[in-house]
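This section describes the prediction task in plain terms. A model, or a person checking by hand, is given the sequence of a single protein chain and must write out its three-dimensional structure as a string of tokens. No templates, partner chains or ligands are provided. The sample shown here is typical of the held-out split.
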Amino acid sequence: MPRWRLVLVEDSAFPGYVRIVWNDHVREFSDLAPADRVALMEVVATVERVMLAVLAPDKINLAAFGTMVPHLHWHVIARFADDSHWPDAIWAPARRTEAGPRCTAAGLRVTEFTRQLLDALEAHSD
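The expected answer:
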């Protein structure tokens, strides 16, 4: 059984947006045992690799704020130069009302991204 869970965020403005949540209540990354830190970062890296391969974003944003929800979790967000918020964070006000063609095309590949991601993460389900 994995020590983490995956949340596939359904947000058409940010195709493929994923949250990785540590199952046990932990406030800070440094609270994890060294082996758990390595295991969690391998999951983050796997999500990033599949995201790059399938969605082909211009950049990946990684975030682990936990200010509003003090439970360890990582945000992995595919970013496109034509998404509604580029180059700002997704939590900033939108710069455009609609996504451009690259971001929209990535949205059409989310099902394939999800399939490949779940396959790739099977190796990390210990």
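For orientation: The domain at 4-124 is CATH 3.30.428.10 (HIT family, subunit A).
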